[in-house]
Specification:
The complex is a heterodimer of chains A (about 425) and B (about 250).
Chain A: H1 2-17, H2 19-48, E1 52-58, H3 63-74, E2 78-82, H4 86-94, E3 100-104, H5 108-126, E4 147-150, H6 156-186, E5 209-210, E6 213-214, H7 219-233, H8 236-249, H9 251-257, H10 262-294, H11 306-330, H12 334-352, H13 363-369, H14 373-386, H15 391-419
Parallel strand pairs in A: 1-2, 1-3
Antiparallel strand pairs in A: 3-4, 5-6
Chain B: E1 2-9, E2 19-26, E3 31-35, H1 42-49, E4 57-62, H2 67-77, E5 78-81, H3 93-102, H4 108-121, H5 137-149, E6 155-159, H6 167-182, E7 186-190, H7 194-200, E8 203-208, E9 211-216, H8 218-224, H9 231-239
Parallel strand pairs in B: 3-7, 3-8, 5-6, 6-7
Antiparallel strand pairs in B: 1-2, 1-4, 8-9
Helix pairs in contact in B: 3-4, 3-5
Classes of the chains: A mainly alpha (about 425), B alpha/beta (about 250).
The structure holds adenosine-5'-triphosphate and magnesium ion (MG).
């Protein structure tokens, strides 16, 4: 036991002598979480607040164009700028000044009405409800085209959503015009509503709620745990460097001649780096609670959740440390351990859903993501933040993390023994 | 004290044995010198005796103990001064020694006193609170030595403890080792300083190609070869003048 404390104290000293390393260990994750949260938050907001300017050329000036225009305005996503000529609008878009121009053809409203009326009359006459259609009215009407000019750099997803949106609006207008035509044929009383022209099927999004509040993770609730986890796992880089350094300094060899087990040596490192994880975690939470709100972001609500959160942090920290110990045991040089460690953490983070939530990954990757300890940790954090679960409910994820720690440490010890049997 | 029988070591990817069927007995209280050209197998032998590497075949015991049966008991009994410094550069001399002493189960006041005693004898007490990376090579060598003797080992293995140090440092180190020897520590050491070995050792063995070519008290060896005036002459007669670079 005394040897363990002495080892722990040594690691503490080593860490405190490396101020640069310590700063990186503590400051970088904080910078990271603030930056990412701000970026993600502002992209969310640009979708919501910032209106995309689009050009509007209306040769129709009728019922239909008014409907489309109102539809676009209602969506609150666009700032509609009127232009007189098709040519001018097209040029502006192709030059990249605007992402989109919409050109409504002449007489769209009147022709649509004509066309619908013709069809309705034709239909009704088949049922013998109406008089013969005069031959003169049986003209072929030109097909009308609403023209969309897109900036070539526009993203496919944006293009498609605009096309779908306008398609839907036109379809709706057509339907309403048809209803109206029937109505006017059947009754002369405009106010008598025969058809309900409102949409029959609409959507309502239902999300789980606690009391009055909807529980959807905001960018703070996603980013603080996700990037904290990332920071916790990043500890494998300094930890493995610490171990590789011991090898190059010859102190590892000396320790092997001492009556002290490798487990004790690793134990000292585990205790110190776990403390680092927890301090870091505390700082991250403090940032979420105190700093982010002053930057105009949502505040992180941790009330009543602190014990669960730290419990998750401890186990996530252990899993990260196990990985670091393994890497430090296997790697021979810093040139091996540092880049590998850093890249590996990024891969685990990506797999674990730190960047992209797991549920929108392809099925194959979703299966793979179950293998990332960061995924287990993130699920545990979500459980605490969003589902407000108790400690018992965290047991499965914590067990996984702990088993991961035990296995990686065991492999380190076995590997160390085998390698030394030169 | 140390009984070595038919001890051999062939490294994994090596073509030849680095130590081959070596027999040797070292008695308690001796200062035993392992001499030999580069690549002779001195470090390999010491590494086996200090459990850093496992023998390919053969066996040995120290004070009747073996690493297979009494690993940590044996480790507690011996001290190893490695050929390279094995210390933490960012810790002070005192912190290094405190930690490494703790690994032998020493603690508290006893450990403090031991550290200060050795630091003083080796002329480092003024620098005990200085970080090791500010030390000169000779100073590091002395700290490296102290780290291995804090627990009063019965047997001390030293791999070239005086390489790269000035005459003053060398004398301090040798004197200190002599004192430890009179207090009951058996010393096994390797060196390329044949004059030093001649003065210091009660017995030496000259090793080449992993085998002992000759062993005995320095004086006896010199007298065996009529044209030899010192140990270096004996050494050159036995090992030749060709360079020994091979890997
Ligand atoms: N890890 C290793 N793998 C393979 N061969 C090795 C290894 N270490 C040493 N050898 C070889 O074993 C032989 C003995 O080496 P050793 O280091 O024991 O020599 P030495 O007597 O200590 O030499 P020096 O005086 O230069 O320190 C050499 O031929 C060396 O090349
Ligand atoms: Mg050597």
């Amino acid at each position: 036991m005394h040897k363990l404390w002495a080892s722990t104290y040594k690691e503490l000293l080593l860490l405190s002598r490396d101020l640069g390393g310590l700063a990186i260990l503590f400051v970088m994750p904080l910078v990271l979480v603030v930056t990412i949260t701000l970026i993600q938050d502002s992209t969310f907001r640009s979708i919501n607040d910032n209106k995309i300017p689009i050009l509007w050329v209306d040769y129709d000036k009728g019922e239909v164009s008014k409907n489309i225009r109102d539809g676009l305005a209602e969506s609150n996503s666009f700032n509609i700028i009127e232009k007189e000529s098709d040519k001018e609008a097209k040029e502006l878009v192709f030059k990249g000044k605007y992402q989109l121009a919409i050109v409504i053809p002449t007489n769209l409203s009147s022709e649509l009405e004509k066309k619908v009326n013709l069809n309705v009359e034709g239909l009704l006459s088949k049922f013998g409800l109406d008089q013969e259609i005069p031959e003169s009215q049986k003209v072929d009407l030109d097909k009308k085209e609403v023209i969309l000019y897109f900036d070539p750099a526009t993203q496919m997803a944006f293009k498609n959503s605009i096309k779908n949106g306008i398609d839907k609006m036109i379809f709706k207008i057509e339907t309403q015009t048809i209803y109206k035509a029937f109505q006017s044929q059947i009754t002369d009383d405009e106010s008598e509503a025969i058809f309900d022209t409102g949409s029959f099927i609409t959507f309502k999004e239902i999300t789980p709620t606690i009391g009055e509040n909807e529980i959807i993770p905001n960018s703070v609730q996603h980013n603080v745990p996700a990037w904290t986890l990332f920071a916790i796992f990043f500890i494998i880089v300094p930890l493995s460097i610490n171990m590789v350094k011991e090898k190059s300094q010859g102190t590892f060899v000396r320790l092997r001649t001492n009556p002290v087990s490798y487990l004790t040596v690793l134990g000292g490192k585990t205790l110190v780096y776990l403390s680092v994880c927890l301090i870091q975690f505390g700082l991250m939470l403090a940032i979420g609670v105190y700093l982010l709100p002053t930057l105009g972001l949502a505040s992180l609500d941790v009330s009543g959740k602190i014990p669960q959160l730290f419990l998750v942090a401890i186990f996530a920290g252990l899993a990260a440390i196990g990985l670091g110990l393994l890497l430090g045991t296997v790697a021979k040089t810093q040139e091996q351990s540092a880049p590998f460690g850093a890249t590996f953490v990024v891969i685990l983070a990506a797999l674990g859903g730190v960047w992209v939530p797991v549920f929108i990954m392809p099925q194959f990757m979703q299966t793979l993501s179950n293998l990332s300890p960061m995924n287990w940790g993130l699920n545990a954090f979500y459980d605490v933040f969003l589902r407000d679960v108790g400690i018992i409910d965290l047991v499965p994820e914590l067990t996984l993390l702990f088993v991961f720690f035990v296995i990686t440490t065991a492999i380190s010890i076995l590997y160390n023994e085998r390698k030394n049997a030169v | 004290m140390i009984q070595i029988s038919q001890l051999s070591k062939k490294y994994k990817n090596a073509e030849e044995y680095s130590v081959l069927k070596l027999d040797l007995k070292i008695s308690e209280g001796e200062i035993f010198g392992l001499l030999g050209p580069n690549g002779a197998g001195k470090t390999t032998l010491i590494s086996m005796l200090s459990s850093l590497i496992k023998p390919t075949s053969g066996n040995f015991s120290i004070n009747g103990l073996t690493f297979q049966k009494n690993g940590n008991q044996l480790r507690q009994l011996i001290g190893i001064v490695p050929q390279e410094y094995a210390l933490y550069p960012t810790l002070t001399a005192y912190e290094n020694l405190y930690y490494l002493g703790s690994m032998y189960g020493l603690k508290g006041r006893r450990l403090k006193e031991k550290i200060n005693f050795h630091l003083e004898v080796l002329g480092l007490e003024k620098f005990s609170r200085k970080k090791l990376d500010t030390f000169s090579g000779g100073m590091k060598r002395r700290v490296n030595l102290i780290a291995s003797i804090l627990h009063d080992p019965k047997v001390l293995f030293l791999d070239e403890p005086t390489v790269g140090v000035d005459v003053q440092s060398k004398n301090v180190i040798i004197d200190h080792l002599k004192k430890l020897n009179t207090l009951g520590t058996t010393i096994v050491y390797t060196s390329h300083h044949l004059n030093e070995a001649e003065q210091f050792c009660t017995r030496v063995a000259i090793i080449d190609h992993g085998k002992i070519i000759v062993e005995g008290a320095p004086k006896n060896l010199i007298s065996q070869y009529p044209e030899a005036h010192n140990l270096e002459d004996v050494f050159l007669t036995l090992t030749g003048k060709a360079l020994r670079d091979h890997a």
